[in-house]
Amino acid sequence: MKHRSILLLVFMLTLGAGSLACAQQGQHEHGHEEMHASGELELQRPETGKWRSDESLRQGMSELKAAFEPAHEAYGSDAFGAGEAAQLADTIEQEVNYMFANCRLPARADAELHKLLAASLDAARMLRESDEPHRGLHRLHRVLQAYPEYFEHPGWAD
Question: What is the pLDDT of residues 66-78, one digit of tens each?
Answer without folding.
Answer: 999 999 999 988 8
